[in-house]
Amino acid sequence: MLNLLLTLLFGGILGFIFNRLKVPGGFLIGSMIGAATLNIFLAAAYMPNQTKIIVQIIAGAFIGCIMEKSDVKRLPQIWKPALIMLIALLILNLTAGFLIYYTSPLDLATALMSVVPGGISDTPIIAVAMGADGPKVAVMQLARQILGIAVLPGLIYAWDQRIKKSHAPATRAAYTKKRQKSNTKSWQAFLCTLAVATIFGLLGNASGLPSATFVFPIISVLVLKLCFDFAYIPRWAKKIAQVLSGCYLGSTISSSNLLELRYLLLPLLIVIVGYTANCFLTGKLISRACGFTQKEAMLITTPAGASDMALIAADLGVENTDIIILQVVRAVVVMTVFPQIIGLILRFTQGGL
């Protein structure tokens, strides 16, 4: 019990510090470093195995809450760019994942989950549940997040300025109507959401399906939100889940694991090049096929969160709510479907060995 409290204390303090420093996924990264430090130097870090289940249930419920009814009503108008974006991301995920697997010491599960364009706080713990190396996945996801938030927007701006005169005008009007967010934020809705997510998360865990402990809460809370408008997960609950996830991942890191991080240089390069190329190439495809401006299309393909993308788009002088909605669609679909596809691939490849 003492080791558990020490782990949560160290992890929570560093998570808070990293969050204040505006590090992407600060609570997860900081708590992972705190728990890892405690484990490496004092061998005192401990988190129960059930932590994985708790984190997946809360994270799944949170993702289920981000989709709004107004987003669903808009889908018939944006299904084409959504489909192009998701197919391109899946191709990138599988291609880069297998390339990492064949060019580095990483196992297949770790390689594939490292490239998943999902949340930095959710993907590592799902990766652990699927048998991957969670800390390595967290490092790779951090690099992707930094790329999406700090690097690609600058490249998009520079590219836009360089070829501004040759830009073809958008053939579709920008959708500027703001997303209509639910006003349901009561503690009753929170408890109901938590209960529904827990029931379906435990059912998913018992099913034995890949990442079902995470996917079932997403789907059940989506139904609760869109059909009954009675789903709510406060941000502080998400932050607690991030600290728990980071502490769990950090408690599995030893000094030998730290030395293995040197093997991530080539995988990191593959992820950076892959997502940068996807931003430009798929962005151009979406621009031509769907009538968005080049800048709008590239923002659609940038691997950042919906809230981050809203701020980035505003900074770049882009006002189009479709960009935000497509980022929400990406978050929900990727975290619901991609782990299932990876699970099938792992099952098929392991069966063939």
Automatic annotation (TrEMBL):
Keyword Transmembrane: yes
Ranges annotated as spanning the membrane: 25-46, 82-102, 142-159, 187-208, 214-233, 265-286, 324-346
Keywords, sorted A to Z: Membrane, Transmembrane, Transmembrane helix
Keyword Transmembrane helix: yes
Top-level taxon of origin: Bacteria
InterPro entries linked: AbrB_dup, AbrB_fam
Pfam assignment, any one: AbrB
Name of the protein in question: Membrane-spanning protein
